[in-house]
Amino acid sequence: MIEFLLLVSGILLILLIFQDILFTTYSMEGGGKMTEFFLTRLWIIFLWISGYNGRRKLLSWAGMFMMISLIFLWGIGLWAGVTLLFASSQDSILQSETHLSTDLWEKIYFSGYVLTTMGLGDYIPANVSWGILSAFFSLLGLVFITLMVSYALPVLSNVIIKKQLSLFTQHLGETPIELLLYFWNGKDFSAIKDISKDLQQKILSVAKSYKAYPVLHYFHANKKKESLVITFCILDEALSILETNVSSEQWDEKEVIPLRKALSCYLETMRTVYNYRGNKSEEMPLPDLQPLKSAHIKLVEKGTSEYERKQLWGQLLQSKGWSWKEVYSSNTNGKR
Question: What is the pTM of this model?
Answer without folding.
Answer: 0.87
